[in-house]
């Protein structure tokens, strides 16, 4: 009798049958069904929108698959090289997940230059003096040169420890500007920050003359790439979760003011680099938010089950980079629509007619010759 009743329900309501199967599969996690019910309840009455806007369809250029044509540099040796920098001599630098700063010399030689013992090395830049500055999401801001590795800044001027330093740039007066992606979540839980309705990112200024690091902008939606304009009059800082980059004036009449540089990007901006012609290259990570709303209940569930929170922000298997002119207009974009060659591309650096790509998924640096063809 019970069996036939169950069968009837199965026949009439297939959604209910699916739920039953789902519960059976999750028998090992007794609290998960409750957690999932809380999610469904929370979805019925969302109390706040997740701060991930839908990517703009206006800016999304037709796919050209150009990133499938990259040449692989250091394949198998460069483990998840998040960012790429170049010095005056044309030597490329990257920080890899195995805790090395690796150098790629012009003759093609790859060198394990410095070992830092961190799997959280992210953005880097070469200063005018020839030092390499590296963001360590655990330690803060590091200086790396022939003498070794030193911690430049581990705390802000208010005593708070710097966590999740993400990208850095040096201005001509020697000041270093760097982003703190999230003051709340670390590099290994970066997805969890997307579930916050409160932006946790900062732009920080480090003055080497006073050895002081102070917050310049706060409440940024995951502060990521930072770059200075060709004239060094403004700085661009990208807000990953907001699909936009801000312009922060560091010189002139507008000094200290902030405006939108570009918004509605067709992807979540990661690192940004100034190109030789004064435009910018921005890598756009391709998020797949599985839920568009958060509520108190969902936040609670994510706190209890962080892995669920990570799963809820997935990554699409594709890569996109865009070239944005200094006036904020889109010049061109390159993509790998299926992730055949590259995915989770986090940086694009232009140098001597080539683009170099870093990634948190691939084990090489991608290299692509830039053509002057108007098609791209
Ligand atoms: Ca950088
Ligand atoms: Ca980054």
From TrEMBL:
Residues 169-252 form the Strictosidine synthase conserved region domain. GO terms for cellular component: vacuole. Gene3D superfamilies: TolB, C-terminal domain. It is found in: Vacuole. InterPro entries: 6-blade_b-propeller_TolB-like, Strictosidine_synth_cons-reg. Keywords: Glycoprotein, Vacuole. This is Strictosidine synthase conserved region domain-containing protein. Belongs to the strictosidine synthase family. Its main location: other. Pfam families: SSL_N (PF20067), Str_synth (PF03088). One of its GO terms (molecular function) is hydrolase activity. The keyword Glycoprotein applies.
């Amino acid at each position: 009798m019970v069996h036939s009743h169950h069968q009837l329900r199965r026949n009439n309501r297939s959604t209910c049958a699916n739920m039953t199967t789902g519960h059976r599969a999750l028998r090992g996690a007794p609290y998960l069904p409750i957690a999932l019910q809380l999610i469904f309840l929370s979805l019925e009455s969302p109390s706040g929108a997740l701060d991930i806007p839908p990517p703009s369809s206006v800016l999304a250029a037709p796919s050209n698959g150009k990133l499938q044509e990259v040449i692989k540099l250091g394949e198998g040796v460069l483990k998840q090289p998040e960012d790429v920098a170049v010095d005056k001599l044309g030597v490329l630098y990257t920080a890899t997940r195995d805790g090395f700063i690796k150098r790629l010399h012009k003759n093609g030689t790859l060198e394990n230059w410095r070992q830092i013992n961190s799997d959280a090395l992210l953005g880097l830049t070469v200063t005018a003096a020839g030092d390499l500055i590296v963001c360590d999401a655990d330690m803060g801001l590091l200086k790396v040169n022939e003498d070794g590795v030193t911690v430049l800044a581990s705390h802000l001027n208010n005593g708070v420890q710097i966590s999740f330093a993400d990208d850095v740039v040096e201005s001509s007066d020697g000041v270093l500007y760097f982003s703190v992606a999230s003051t709340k979540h670390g590099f290994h839980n970066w997805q969890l920050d997307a579930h916050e309705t409160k932006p946790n990112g900062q732009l920080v200024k480090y003055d080497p003359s006073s050895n002081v690091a102070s917050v310049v902008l706060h409440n940024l939606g995951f502060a990521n790439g930072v770059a200075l304009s060709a004239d060094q009059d403004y700085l661009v800082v990208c807000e990953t979760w907001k699909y936009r980059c801000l312009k922060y004036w560091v010189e002139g009449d507008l000094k200290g003011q902030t405006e939108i540089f570009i918004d509605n990007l067709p992807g979540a901006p990661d690192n940004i680099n100034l190109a030789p012609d004064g435009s910018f290259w921005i890598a756009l990570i391709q998020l797949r938010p599985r839920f568009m709303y958060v509520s108190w209940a969902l936040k609670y569930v994510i706190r209890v089950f962080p892995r669920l929170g990570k799963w809820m922000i997935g990554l699409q298997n594709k890569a996109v980079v865009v070239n944005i002119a200094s006036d904020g207009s889109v010049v061109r974009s390159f993509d790998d629509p299926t992730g055949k060659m590259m995915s989770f591309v986090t940086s694009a650096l232009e140098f001597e007619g080539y683009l170099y790509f870093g990634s948190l998924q691939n084990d090489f640096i991608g290299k692509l010759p830039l053509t002057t063809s108007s098609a791209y």
